[in-house]
Amino acid sequence: MPYLERPGVRLFYADYPPAPGTRPPLNVLLVHGLWGAAEGWIYQIPTLRTHHRTVAVDLRGHGRSGGPSAGYDIGDHAEDLSALIRHAGLAPAVVLAHSMGCSVASVLAARHPDLVRALVLIDPDYAGDPGEREWMARLADDLEGPDGDQIAQDLISDRFHTPATPGHLRTWHLLDVLSRPAWLRARTFRHSAFGPNSLRFRPQAEPVLRRRRQPVLAFHRHAARAQVERMCLSHDYSEIVLHPQAGHFLHQELSGDVNDSLMRWLSALPR
Distance of CA 125 to CAs 31, 69, 101, 225, Å? Predict the structure, then answer.
């Protein structure tokens, strides 16, 4: 599998060509969320690659990519992706992202509109209630403390899973979060929530979201965030899908529904 050498970091990505004989494919870049990795897309990659070139990246500090001591602002991740899109010849790419990856993808689309054809966003982490700022600041401190492993697992159990989340996904997520060093989990969380280019809270998110000119397909589980998304859309070929009973990893929990909506939407995407 290939790597991209960036100043100060080596980025891993997996590149899957489309099936032979398909119509001219789209280039789809998959961007995981906080503490995730490329394998989080295992339910989407086989479907996407039947029609499109599909590239799944490990963001810096995640998966098989390097974990430098700096460079974890949302803007830093966005510039890593802009370099990858150019390096791999993906422009303009459809960027399919989850959670924190949606903030990264949105900053990328606003900064580099020539590199992004469209956005597909799974339960974005952006545009949250500013009233949660104090709670998240305490959480960031706790993640840096001696109980960081348990704090990270509790966060996933309490906030990301629902009673309907299948047991195998619960087990996977709780084990997977421990594959990242505690200091790195804490650093990436703090930057995603409070870094200079963070979109975590609505006042900071809305101006950036309104600068996206691309079509957007967004899957939400929170009606309030879906409404903010709807207010910020600028392209007529945009769509919001609401799954209020799903957990945060809804592309894994509801892979069939998500894949059906995704492939239908991509098939008619303006080119």
Answer: 13, 23, 8, 9
Confidence of residue 137 (pLDDT cuts 50, 70, 90): very high
Question: Can you read off the two tokens belonging to residue 148?
Answer: 């960081």
Range of the domain at 102: 3-133+199-267
In this prediction, residues 39-43 reach a mean pLDDT of 98
Amino acid at 134: E
Q: Using CA atoms, how far apart are residues 240 and 224, in angstroms rounded to an integer?
A: 12
Report pLDDT for 22.
73
Whole-prediction pTM: 0.97
Q: What is the CATH number of the domain that holds 17?
A: 3.40.50.1820
Q: Is residue 129 part of a domain?
A: yes
**Cα–Cα dist 157/161, whole Å:** 5
Does residue 181 have a cis bond before it (omega within 30 degrees)? no
Backbone angles phi, psi at 210, to 5 degrees: -70, -20
* Within a domain: 159: no
Measured in degrees and rounded to the nearest 5, phi and psi for residue 124 equal -55, 150
Q: What are the pLDDT digits (tens) for 184-206? A: 999 999 999 999 999 999 999 99
Q: Evaluate whether residue 188 is within a structural domain.
A: no
Residue 170 lies in a domain: no
**Is the distance from CB of 245 to CB of 162 less than 8 angstroms?**
yes
250, 256 Cβ separation under 8 angstroms: no
Query: What total of structural domains would you count in the chain?
Result: 1
